[in-house]
UniProtKB/TrEMBL annotation:
InterPro entries membership: Ferrochelatase, Ferrochelatase_AS, Ferrochelatase_C, Ferrochelatase_N
EC number: 4.99.1.9
Keywords: Cytoplasm, Heme biosynthesis, Iron, Lyase, Metal-binding, Porphyrin biosynthesis
Pathway assigned in UniProt: Porphyrin-containing compound metabolism; protoheme biosynthesis
Naturally occurring in which organism (per UniProt): Paenibacillus swuensis
Ligand binding (Fe(2+)): 183, 263
Leading EC class: lyase
One Gene Ontology MF term: metal ion binding
Name under which the protein is recorded: Coproporphyrin III ferrochelatase
Cellular-component GO terms for this entry: cytoplasm
Length: 308
């Protein structure tokens, strides 16, 4: 009997494939308004600082998409899963992924975002674009909105916290403060009761409990440079506050990010590390999930749940 083919649209924010694509990428984020030379230089400098001529960021997402397809077909052999990419700010755009599915003869699909937590401004906007494209293409499509408390996700994150704590050789005499972090969003989401901040706290609580961590807090990072206020406190301000409180060891676990990219490799590994060093803090970061089998299982089970 022929297996039923299921298309899976794997959505993410997107990143340029090379340094010469940074301007087009930044312009798309700015809704068609090109950045000033100063803004472009600042962003390009950040990419150059983390990639050093080699640009691995897109490859991380490519590997996650391939890993999910392999995991789905391994776990649910009664179906044939085919994964497609859909990016918010780079090619292939979300609409491109949907149209490719329709062109390939897929008539049933599931959409999932490489971000565990739901916000109308982030995951919600991805789903809205995909849904509109699916309706235009006559494609039946359901969506995973969040998976922030999936047991395999919590396992993977808590293992990283427990393992990374071992890097603090003086942890028995000098306590370690664990700081969970995620991408900030404009404060206006609070007016509508958006679940994003609460879901972050729920994930943090679950990971801390499983890792046996008592001393922890949550902080935002990577806020946009706009006139409107963004959710805080920012991680850089949090580090200063911790130093004033007498904390010396800090472990950052960026639960809002699932792979190595700019917000992790620059905002934490370079910018936050410099601030920590200036403050005399020992700062460590948990490794990103990337293609961790437990994360792949999280995604696969979340996708499959939309078929039953």
């Amino acid at each position: 009997m022929e297996k039923k083919r299921i298309g899976v649209l794997v959505m993410s924010y997107g990143t340029p494939e090379s340094l010469d694509q940074v301007e087009a990428y930044y312009t798309h984020i700015r809704r068609g308004n090109p950045p000033s030379p100063e803004q472009l230089k600042e962003l390009t400098d950040r990419y150059e600082a983390i990639v050093g001529g080699f640009f691995p960021l897109r490859e991380n997402t490519n590997q996650q998409v391939a890993g999910l397809e392999e995991t789905l077909n391994g776990m649910y052999p009664e179906y044939e899963f085919v994964c497609y990419q859909g990016l918010k700010h780079a090619v292939p755009y979300i609409e491109d992924g949907v149209h490719k599915m329709a062109k390939d003869g897929i008539n049933h699909a599931v959409g999932i975002v490489l971000a565990p937590h739901f916000s109308t401004m982030s995951v919600g906007s991805y789903i809205k674009r995909a849904q509109q494209a699916a309706e235009e293409a006559g494609l039946a499509m359901s969506f995973v909105e969040s998976y922030h408390l999936h047991p395999q996700l919590i396992d993977a994150l808590s293992e990283r916290v427990a393992d990374t704590l071992q890097r603090f050789e003086d942890r028995n005499s000098v306590p370690v403060r664990v700081v969970f972090s995620a991408h900030s969003l404009p404060e206006k989401i609070l007016e509508t009761g958006d679940p994003y901040p609460q879901q972050m706290i729920e994930t943090s609580e679950a990971v801390a409990e499983q890792a046996g961590v008592n001393s922890w807090q949550f902080s935002w990072q990577s806020a946009g440079q706009t006139a409107m206020p963004w959710l805080g406190p920012d991680i850089l301000d949090t580090l200063k506050t911790l130093q004033e409180e007498g904390v010396r060891n800090v472990l950052v676990c960026p639960i809002g990010f699932v792979s190595d990219h700019l917000e992790v490799l620059y905002d934490l590994d370079i910018e936050a590390q410099k601030v920590a060093a200036d403050l005399g803090l020992h700062l460590e970061r948990t490794p990103s999930l990337n293609t961790d089998p437990k994360y792949m299982t999280t995604l696969a089970e979340s996708v499959f749940s939309k078929l039953t």
